[in-house]
Amino acid sequence: xxxxxxxxxxxxxxxxxxxxxxxxxxxxxxxxxxxxxxxxxxxxxxxxxxxxxxxxxxxxxxxxxxxxxxxxxxxxxxxxxxxxxxxxxxxxxxxxxxxxxxxxxxxxxxxxxxxxxxxxxxxxxxxxxxxxxxxxxxxxxxxxxx
Length: 146
Known about the structure:
Layout: E1 10-14, E2 21-25, E3 30-34, H1 37-43, E4 47-51, E5 56-59, E6 64-68, E7 73-78, E8 84-89, E9 95-98, E10 109-114, E11 131-132, H2 134-142
Parallel strand pairs: 3-10, 10-11
Antiparallel strand pairs: 1-2, 2-5, 3-4, 4-9, 6-7, 7-8, 8-9
């Protein structure tokens, strides 16, 4: 989960086919890795996730399809090409964007891994970053006002 991320200027990105584009100013330059079962199914592996602390502006919003994946969040994807776009918290609309949809990923560094107990044994990241279990993540979510 993101904490005290240095911010970058304006970043852009979009889906595979270009039907959905986005712009975000002051985005954090760190990402986390989620190994939960839902993210693995959604992303086909671990989700490399950029937790936004600032608003994101989408172009082509009419092409975004949304799936309510839990009581606290929904996942958005391009309705044309199927690219995973975001995970959005229901309470405050906070977006978590997939790292892979940013046009320039060079400014980003890995910050943490979550749901580490659900990570398949067949791979490991070399980055020495904090790791949280699902129980620890849910304990943090329980403190949120929504």
